[in-house]
Amino acid sequence: MSGLLRNILAFFVGLFGYGSRAPQDVVVTNFWVTPFDSGIKVLKSDKYLQFAETAQVDYLLQVGRFFAILRSGASFVNVAQQVRFSRPVPVFSRVRVETRLLYADEKCAYFLHAVHARGGQAAEVLVKMKFKKGGITVAPASFLRFDFAEVPEKVRRWEPVLQTQGPGDTPSFPSPPPPAVPSQSTHKPGCSPSA
Questions:
Q1: I need a labelling partner for 154 at 20 to 30 A (CA). Which of 30, 111, 172, 192 fits?
Q2: So what's the pLDDT on residue 191?
Q3: In which element (H, E) is residue 132 found?
Q4: Residues 6+ apart with CB under 8 A from 51
Q5: Would you report the helix, strand and coil content of the chain in percent, each value rounded to 5?
């Protein structure tokens, strides 16, 4: 229930800044970690993904594209998510999520959500998203104006990992191994960045 309430509140707060940002801007969304979001005393790992989804809705509101997406009959689907945890977030902490469009190609948009709490970065959530209309993928450029000269290193490193695993598989990282920071990853097959 806390996720639904958070989404509703974020939606109405986001309306006040509708269209105030450009797609290349960083959009900041703030949350409070409640007892409903935590295990015994820290934020549960699945809540990072919920914060990222709510922050994406806020991003689409802030860049003024949320209602254009709805009017077109499209929706957005997260096809892969990965969390890299840096440190735990205690209950009753104020969390700041900085969302930016990291990259987009003809099929997918990649978002980076930096989660900050208590003066430092607590996690980073990388999201691979598609716009869908009636089961057909719609190019992100239909809704977001962007210009990327090249694929960012984070996307280049992440994409091969996604291609080697199926839905529900545990990620197998290519050499060299990833940093010793725990991560959580989910993936739905379907798109890869252009080189």
A1: 30
A2: 62
A3: strand 120-133
A4: 29, 31, 95, 97, 113, 115, 125
A5: 30, 30, 40
Q: What's residue 173's pLDDT?
A: 41
pLDDT at position 164, please?
Answer: 65
* DSSP helix/strand/coil, 31: strand
Whole-model pTM above 0.85?
no
pLDDT value at residue 186? 55
Whether the CB-CB separation of 123 and 83 falls below 8 Å is answered with: yes
C-beta separation of 62 from 17 below 8 A? yes
Give the CATH number, domain containing residue 157. Answer: 3.10.129.10
If one counts the domains in the chain, the total is: 1
Written as one letter, the residue type at 104 is A
Question: What residue ranges of the chain have pLDDT lower than 50?
Answer: 1, 170-180, 195
In whole angstroms, what is the distance from residue 132 CA to residue 79 CA? Answer: 11
What angle do helix axes 45-62 and 2-16 make, rounded to 10 degrees? 20
Nearest Cα to 31, choosing from 10, 58, 16, 11? 10
Measured distance CA(111)–CA(164) in Å, rounded: 21
195 in any annotated domain = no
Q: How many residues does the chain have?
A: 195
